[in-house]
Every structure is written in structure tokens, then in C-alpha cells.
Amino acid sequence: MANLQVRVNDELKSQADMLFASLGFDTSTAVRIFLTAAVENNGLPFEVRHTMPENMRQAVYDSRNRVNLNGPYDSAQEAVAAMLED
């Protein structure tokens, strides 16, 4: 049988230990359940979504679609000055 070591901060470990204990098992069992479900699903056993603030989403959209852009700039100093303008 293999050993698996994972580094997490103390607070996360404590919270996870309490959660899993309330469900009737220890953290090692929870990790085995997760790994088994991941293998059975051929991926993570839950949906992973990346959320970003609306202004960031708009900036990504603008850059991908080349709208609302500034520049080009002749120097890095000129670009930085434009970023600092309000």
C-alpha cells in the first residue's frame, strides 16, 4: 500500500478533520473516497468553475476581441503612465 503526503495549512486540516469526523470517518478515508471517485469519473468528481469579477471578465473579453484597448505605446514609461491615469 502506498503513502500519500499532502501539505495544507493547519486551519484547513483542522476544519477538514472536524467535518469528516462529523460525517463518521477520518480525513484519510475522505481522501480515499475522493481518489476513488476521481478514478471512476475519469476526472474530478465535481464541477470546477473559475469565477472572476465582472470587470475582469469584461477586460478579458475586450482583449480577446480587440475592443476598448489603448496604445500602442512608444515606451514602457508611456504605457505605465497610461495605466496610472484615472
Largest sheet: none
**Low-pLDDT residue spans:** none
* Global shape: elongated
Written as H for each helix and E for each strand, in order along the chain, the element string is: HHHH
Q: What share of the residues lie within helices?
A: 55-70%
Task: Tell me the β content.
Answer: under 5%
Q: Report the average pLDDT across residues.
A: 91
Distance between the termini: 60 Å
| CA radius of gyration | 23 Å
Total count of helical runs of at least 4 residues:
4
Strands, total number: 0
Q: In terms of structural class, how would the helical and strand content be classed?
A: mainly alpha
Question: Can you offer a commentary on this structure?
Answer:
With 86 residues, the chain is an all-alpha fold. It has a domain at 54-84. 57% of the residues lie in helices and 0% in strands. It is elongated. The model has no long low-confidence stretch (mean pLDDT 91).
Descriptors:
4 helices, single chain, mainly alpha
Draw up the topology in text:
Elements: H1 10-22, H2 27-41, H3 54-65, H4 76-84
Give a summary of the structure in a few sentences.
The protein has 86 residues and is mainly α. It contains four helices and no strands.
